[in-house]
Amino acid sequence: MPVMITAQMECILYTTILRPKSASLLKRLNTLVLAKKREYWLTIYLVMFVLLHNCAMITKRDEETATQYGHKDRYANPASVHAQHTGVQAMLAHFHFINKGVIPFSLPHNEIGRAELQRAAELDDEQVDFVWRTSDLIRDRGILVDLMEHVRERDLVGHDLFWVSFLYDEDWKPRLND
C-alpha cells in the first residue's frame, strides 16, 4: 500500500476508533483494578497484555516512521511515545502493587498450588491451565525468557515482548522513560 494511503488509514483509524474508545477502555480497566476483586485478575492480566503489546507496536511504528523520514530523534512523535510509556508504567504499577499481579504465575504446579490459584483468582480449570502454561513459558529458562532479557538489556522498546515482559517481574520497578 502506498505510504500516503497507509498514513491516511492510520489517521482515520486513530481518530474514529482508537482515540474515542481509549478513554472508555482505560476507565473500565481502572475500575476493575481498583475494585481489588480477585475474580477480575485474569481479565486485567489479559487486557494488560494486549495494551502493553500494542504500546510496543505503536512505539516500533513511530521509530520506523522517524527513520523513514530522516528525523534526528529516535521517534517521529517523541512526546506521544513518552506519554504512552509513562501510561504503561502507571498501568504496570497498578498491576503489580495493587493486585500483586505476578503471584498467580509463581504458585507451585501441584494440587495445592492449583487449589490456591483457583481460590485466589476465582478461576475455572481451563483458566488455571492457561495461567500454568503461561507461567511455564516464563519460569523455564528457555528461549522466550532469554529473548525477553535480550530485548530489555538493549532497550528495544518497540519489540513485541518489551513491555509485556514486565508483567512477570516479581520485583518490578518503574524504568527511566525516554
Order of helices and strands: HHHHHHH
Overall number of strands: 0
Mean pLDDT: 87
Q: Helix fraction?
A: 55-70%
Number of helices: 7
How many structural units, i.e. domains?
1
N→C terminal distance:
31 Å
Oligomeric state, counting identical vs distinct chains: single chain
Main sheet: strands, sense, barrel: none
Shape: globular
Tell me the structural class: mainly alpha
Unreliable stretches: none
What's the Cα radius of gyration? Answer: 18 Å
Strand portion, in percent?
under 5%
How would you describe what is shown here?
It is a single chain. By secondary structure, this protein is an all-alpha fold. It has one domain (24-168). It is 69% helix and 0% strand. The longest helix has 33 residues, at 3-35.
What is this structure, in a nutshell?
This protein is mainly alpha-helical and 178 residues long. Helices cover 69% and strands 0% of the residues. The protein has one domain (24-168).
